Amino acid sequence: MPHENSSILLDFSVQSLLLLM
After folding, report:
1. What span, in angstroms and rounded, lies between the C-alpha atoms of 18 and 3?
2. Rounded distance, CA 2 to CA 21, Å?
C-alpha cells in the first residue's frame, strides 16, 4: 500500500513540474 501511495505522489509531483514548465 505505501508503495502505491509513493508512486501516486511522485506522479503528482511530475505533473506539477510539467504544468509549471
Report:
1. 23
2. 29
What would the grid cell of residue 2 be? 505505501
Kindly state the cell numbers that stand for 21: 514548465
Mean pLDDT, range 1-21, rounded to an integer: 86
Cβ-proximal residues to 4 (8 Å cutoff; 6+ apart), any chain: none
CA distances from 12 to 2, 3, 6 (A): 15, 14, 10
Percent of the chain whose predicted confidence (pLDDT) is above 70 = 86
